[in-house]
Amino acid sequence: MPRKPKQDRARATVDAIVEAGFIALSQRGPAATTTRHIAEIAGVGVGSLYEYFENKEAIFSAMSQRFIADTAAMIKPLTPTLVQMPIDSAIRMLLNEFRNFLGRDDGRYLKCVRHAMAVDFELHLDPLFQVLNNVIMRYLTGHPETLRVSRIPAITYIGINGGIFAVIRHLSDPDPLVSFDEMADGLASMIGHYIEQELLLLRGVAE
Amino acid sequence: MPRKPKQDRARATVDAIVEAGFIALSQRGPAATTTRHIAEIAGVGVGSLYEYFENKEAIFSAMSQRFIADTAAMIKPLTPTLVQMPIDSAIRMLLNEFRNFLGRDDGRYLKCVRHAMAVDFELHLDPLFQVLNNVIMRYLTGHPETLRVSRIPAITYIGINGGIFAVIRHLSDPDPLVSFDEMADGLASMIGHYIEQELLLLRGVAE
DNA sequence: TAATTTTCCGAATTGAATCCGAACAAGCGT
DNA sequence: ACGCTTGTTCGGATTCAATTCGGAAAATTA
């Protein structure tokens, strides 16, 4: 039963532990990140970890919370700028800021997020990508007019990755803000509209 | 140094182990899934696990590969049907099939995928969602004409989830098929075009 | 300063992952 | 069928990391 820190010294210890967690995880990976390691990097005894954290998982959980809070804090001040930009520029800016943020401190956050998302999964995703790419390829050759729309590879990449993650997130979400059908309809419409708009632009240029 | 199975009996053992992995993981969760548990469910001795798998992780890895292969096999026969549907219907169908697939065997796959993706992460994602929703909310109120486009909640949900995952996947991808800028441009254009198309449709209806 | 609370520690405990060598089965040439 | 080699299974013994615990040190309070 972990305690809440009451003194500044203790708060510093908690902070050092979380910070050490990020360092250890990014340097050694999740398997090699032992409690002794974290304690050593933090400059505290192993026992101290358990003064404030239920177990090792709880340390990772605290790290996750810290990461999300930092991300939110990074975005918040951008809000006024973002809202008065064209929407596509805003999205581009947001993505770039997020990338830079993940790359800070020699990519410490990025490395941690990869582990946290069990990205070893990624390697095995290839066969699925192949099948889906095949579907898309055949679709395009079967509808020659669509071959001229721009950014096909990028849209494919986003559609597949985003689609997979969105479905899994949604099915894991205890209280989703939109129904599954709404989400499916949204993704379908988004890509459908994209194609339509592109064809429209192409026709406009042709005339 | 694990061996490759040369006899049918051994192949059956490997299969039983992987299958037991799915059962154990879906029933008990990742923390409570011990090697003895897997061995017991598979009906083999603990030692046998290490005949064909480097370690416990390797079993999970094999499970992941199996899962992806099964998913691809599920989609492949749909290809002919998909390619002659309108693109939005095809996407809807794909998403539904994927959902049903994950739900098979009392959601065994879904439970495993959740664990594999370290879904405890999910709980902490909330603050980030709030900030981003706030940005979107302010944008919408600042551009009243966009308030009438349909599926705003769904597009938001997909944009945020899909965007986050796509960025992280991309930054983890050793050999991405598209550059980061292309991907950012793709996501920006996709949502931008969606809005344009919606506004176009709205204008069309108004006239 | 003494009493009390908070914090820190690291040796000892516990339990799961992994190893290993003996026992059992299958293939194979004679 | 029989011995020999190779493939397979097993579960007790070993190893190593997570967690506990009881007391020392530091801070706070009286």
Describe this structure in words.
The structure is a homodimer of 207-residue chains. Chain A is mostly helical. Chain A folds into two domains: 8-116, Tetracycline Repressor, domain 2 (Orthogonal Bundle); 125-206, no CATH class. Chain A contains ten helices and no strands. Chain A has helices at 8-28, 35-42, 46-52, 56-75, 79-83, 87-116, 120-124, 126-142, 152-172, 180-206. Chain A is elongated and about 75 Å long. Chain A starts with 7 loop residues before the first helix and ends with a helix. At the A-B interface, helix 4, helix 5, helix 6, helix 7 and helix 8 of A face helix 4, helix 5, helix 6, helix 7 and helix 8 of B. The structure holds a DNA duplex (30 and 30 nucleotides).
List the helices and strands and how they pair.
The structure is a homodimer of 207-residue chains.
Chain A: H1 8-28, H2 35-42, H3 46-52, H4 56-75, H5 79-83, H6 87-116, H7 120-124, H8 126-142, H9 152-172, H10 180-206
Helix pairs in contact in A: 1-2, 1-4, 1-6, 4-6, 9-10
Chain A binds a DNA duplex (30 and 30 nucleotides) through residues 3, 5-7, 9-10, 13, 34-36, 44-51, 55-56.
Keywords, separated by commas or semicolons:
207 residues, mainly alpha, 2 domains, DNA-binding, TetR/AcrR family transcriptional regulator (chains A, B), HTH_TetR (chains A, B)
